[in-house]
Write a structure and sequence with these properties.
about 220 residues, mainly beta, 5-stranded mixed beta sheet, 4-stranded antiparallel beta sheet, 1 helix, 17 strands, about 5% helix, about 45% strand
């Protein structure tokens, strides 16, 4: 009899859409400041017949919940930063500490991917479209600036975070973080190395909090 009652209650909750939630949500808008693209110069070692440079990614920010969270469990997450139309794609990538990043070359010309940033110094050398470079694990938090030695205008950033709760904004600055733990935390918006906005937040079970970061 009790089993039948529990089954009927489950059906009622599914039909009515009243299954309780245990997570919180934050949404809002980050005021973005336009950043100028690097001037495009002739490739140092051109090999492709058609050297057509695509537009860089629109300006965006990384919004994340800062706090003392347990390390990620299971296999590391895998992300990708390709070279496409003579730009890094995406031009801004957010990952959690311990994640693996791939750097495939999708252009008909050699690229050289490297970084001198303190959290992760590396040089993948020059490689063509049909070659597979090494995959890299990013095990230190911080910002890693990535460049191409052959094409000076190609620049990107990898933001490595010690939190599982983050999102890249859309070009208009909108973001929405879901499945967040209740409690008191600090919400941050990364725009540049010298521009990180922060705001304390208190998250409640099942509630949606609206937080905007006005343009600096």
């Amino acid at each position: 009899m009790r089993a039948l009652a529990r089954a009927l209650l489950g059906i009622a909750l599914a039909v009515c859409g009243t299954t309780p939630t245990t997570a919180a949500t934050i949404e809002g808008v980050v005021g973005l400041r336009p950043t100028g693209a690097a001037p495009v110069a002739k490739a140092r070692y051109p090999t492709a017949a058609n050297y057509t440079v695509g537009p860089p990614d629109p300006t965006a920010a990384i919004v994340y919940l800062d706090g003392d969270f347990p390390p990620a469990a299971g296999a590391p997450a895998v992300a990708e930063m390709a070279q496409h139309a003579y730009q890094f794609s995406p031009g801004l990538l957010a990952i959690r500490t311990g994640s693996v990043v791939r750097f495939p070359n999708l252009d008909d010309e050699y690229h050289s991917v490297f970084s001198y940033s303190k959290p992760k110094r590396f040089d993948l050398g020059r490689y063509a479209k049909d070659e597979t470079p090494a995959e890299l694990t990013f095990d230190q938090p911080g910002v890693v600036r990535v460049y191409c030695e052959i094409h000076d205008h190609m620049r990107s950033a990898i933001v490595v975070l010690d939190t599982p709760y983050f999102q890249k904004t859309d070009p208009d600055g909108h973001y929405r973080l879901t499945d967040l733990p209740a409690g008191q935390w600090v919400l941050k918006a990364w725009l540049e190395d010298d521009t990180i906005r922060a705001q304390p937040v208190e998250l409640r079970v099942g509630a949606t909090l609206h937080v905007d970061f006005p343009a600096p």
